[in-house]
Amino acid sequence: MNKSRTTRRKVLKILSSAAAVISLPLQVRSTESVIVVKIGHIQSLSGPSSPYGIRARDGATFAMNEINRAGGFTDKNNNKYVIEILEGDMVNDPKQAVILFRQHALDPTVVASIGPTNSLGFLPCIPAAAQFKLPLVSNGSGAPVKQWTPWAYRVNPEASTVTPIFIKTVVKTLGIRRLAVIFDQTQDAQTGDARITKKLAEKIGYEVVSYEAFRSSDQDFSPQLTNVRIKKPDAIFVAATTGDGVRIVMQLREMGINIPLLTGYGAFFDPVYWDATNGKIKDCYTWLAQDPNRTDSTFRQWLDEYNRTFKLEATSFSMHGYDAVYTIIECIKQANGTDRSAIQKKLSSLNFISPIGTRISFKNPPHGNNLNPSITIMKISGRASGQSIL
Predict the structure, then answer these.
(1) I need a surface site. Which of 32, 62, 98, 368 has the fewest CB within 10 A?
(2) Where do the domains of the chain lie, and which CATH numbers do they carry?
(3) What are the angstrom distances between the C-alpha of 314 and each of 60, 73, 177, 292, 304?
(4) Reported pTM
């Protein structure tokens, strides 16, 4: 009897092991039927540009999770895909951005790279994209580009398109005749904004009475702000990343300079800016790629779910990160595959609307800018709230 029981146990163990072996190929086959799309993502996750980079990273992560929770996506040939994003921190260093991009390019499983939001990182990656033949889609850079390549794009509005509209609208609204500019000379996007603002003065009809440069992470702006106060401007354009901008605003207000402030890239709409300045940016002006006051249900649901998911609330850079992922996805759908050259070819003439309503269209050559970006000009009235004036 004991021998019989032992035999049955052995038989059951053998059958159990056999069942496990039989089930293994089925699991492998189901995994093999899904193609994993690897996308590189380069951002400043530390340093002065991190408030933008973290938002763009979170927006891309939100898109990845949204797609994968839905079971992935399919192309026209019914190939099925899921997303994997490979993150890298450029630490506000252009050399590090290029190193990370090269790593993505040398990995044959990576189909494209997105980011950085920081122009300091995006601009040197443009020639690298052409060299390594890896599609690159920025989700926030706004600085002018001297020489494009058909391998580089950006989904967001950029300064040469938006800043003239922004300045003209606010100058007319406030009746500005004398404008001061303070800008970070180490950041390409902020320097670009300052130059455009100076160049537009005669055409729009104001005078730049003070043009003050500083370096990223400076702590004391009193020399520049003293010059500004002496010139008695009607308003000040603050072209700075969030950390430096907060210090400038606080020092301006402490000096009793309470005139309206202007800034680009939705900076004043960031709740971090409002909190850190104790609301001293009230009645100041910025521009955004999306109107946060939109009432359509799809956008409101997206915004609510995003803000429930992440510690930092959504800004335009969150939407740019999200849109960049869907831009790559749309190209894969249209190309029916993940070949880099096929994705680049689709990018060069892409025209589609992202799930949150962003119109994204390219024609490269001659350039990789979004041809139809949406623009909203905001007068800040509270924490992450304001009145749309355009």
Answers:
(1) 32
(2) 34-157+295-373 (3.40.50.2300), 160-288 (3.40.50.2300)
(3) 12, 25, 34, 10, 9
(4) 0.84
